[in-house]
Amino acid sequence: MSTHAEEQVAGFNVAEVEIEAYDEEDDLESPSYMEQLLAAGLLISTGVDGLYGRSQVFEDVVERVSDLIGAWGEGKEVEVLRFPPAMSRKVLEESGYWANFPDQLGAVFSFCGNERSHQRLLKCLDNDEDWTEDVKPTRIVMTPVACYPVYGVMAARGPLPTGGRLVDIFSYCCRYEPSTAPERMLMFRQREFVRMGTPAEVLAFREDWIEHTKGMMRGLQLPSSIGLANDPFFGRTGKILIDSQREQQLKFELLIPGVNPDRLTACGSFNYHRDKFSSLWKIYTDAGEIAHTGCCGFGLERLTLSLFKHHGFDPTAWPEGVRATLWGGRKMAQRVR
Ligand code: ZN
Fold first, then answer.
1. Residues contacting 213, CB < 8 A, separation 6+
2. How many Å lie between the centroid of ligand 1 and the Cα of residue 269?
3. What mean pLDDT, rounded, does the chain reach?
4. Total Cβ atoms within 10 A of residue 80
5. What distance in Å separates the CA atoms of residue 301 and residue 321, rounded to the nearest whole number?
6. Which domains are seen in the chain, by residue range?
7. Whole-structure pTM value
8. 4 alpha carbon to ligand 1 midpoint, in Å?
9. Cα of 146 to ligand 1 centre, how many Å?
10. If you average pLDDT over residues 120-146, what whole number do you get?
11. Ligand 1: centre distance to CA 247 (Å)
12. Are 297 and 266 spatial neighbours (Cβ–Cβ below 8 Å)?
């Protein structure tokens, strides 16, 4: 774990917040953090690793964190868009997701047989045999990334207005990577802003978000750093994409220690897509140039898990500054036992 005081990256003055010496002693003891979260009732087991219910107290923190992120948009010309946690399979096919992250995709399947095949399915279920013969992919897939549904919608409106567009997005996302690690949920929420415009507009947006995030982390009293990162591209060609992404400094991540005793947890990302999505979906600036896009988003569960890890399981006992940052004068959710 490196703690650079300051790093000059691609014109960004990424002053990394010093990572406080973290007391890992309690991580050496059992039970694990996940077991503690379940025992405290903050998360509720569904019997599937990575898929959990959330308590009122957990949700209260998620909502407050989401509002804190959303507050960045106040006073700006921002369009709020919300999509369900599933999206058009065709749009996802166009995005190249199958090529890059096939191992993470969650697709929706449904029974599409006749009465006879239905009887066969029921018989297979009774006999504990494979029943999936007449279960086929539908036209929807689970949304893997909150901003994916946005680009096509924006392209359909024609060229961007002068000054581009700024969109506020929130969605449940699905990544199929079953794990007992609390930071690796199958279904989690992202709060995100998407910027479309000229390269200068998109880069300024990202730089602003990186600076803003440092202030947010101070307010939440979370040790953190911002580091160069890459997406987990799949396979041998993926390695080339990873190298290129890092070389062009297209992705930075907000990294927070604690939730996983062995590694930092990426709780947010600051992405410059260049013209990748705008070329795919044909998004142009008002000057008729191909637009550039970028997005800055946060994993709400990961930030919430970090807050519980560093400040304890009872938010009413969190440091006053953290409570003021999140709740202000609002009422906090009380634990139901
Ligand atoms: Zn995004």
1. 226, 254, 268, 270, 296
2. 8
3. 89
4. 10
5. 21
6. 6-106+144-326 (3.30.930.10), 108-142 (no CATH)
7. 0.87
8. 27
9. 6
10. 94
11. 20
12. no
**Could you give the CA distance from residue 106 to residue 102 in angstroms, rounded to a whole number?**
9
pLDDT confidence of 4, banded at 50, 70, 90? very low
Question: How many angstroms is it from 156 CA to the middle of ligand 1?
Answer: 19
Q: Is residue 198 classed as helix, strand or coil in its secondary structure?
A: coil
Structure tokens at 271: 């992405």
Distance CA 49, CA 300 (A): 19
Give per-residue pLDDT as tens, 172-221: 999 998 899 999 999 999 999 999 999 999 999 999 999 999 999 999 99
Question: What is the whole-number distance in angstroms between the Cα of residue 162 and the centre of ligand 1?
Answer: 22
CA angle 143, 171, 286 (to 5 degrees): 85
Distance 211 CA to ligand 1 centre (A): 18
Query: What is the 169 CA–ligand 1 centroid distance (Å)?
Result: 9
Check residue 235 and give its pLDDT: 79
What are 40's two structure tokens? 């405290």
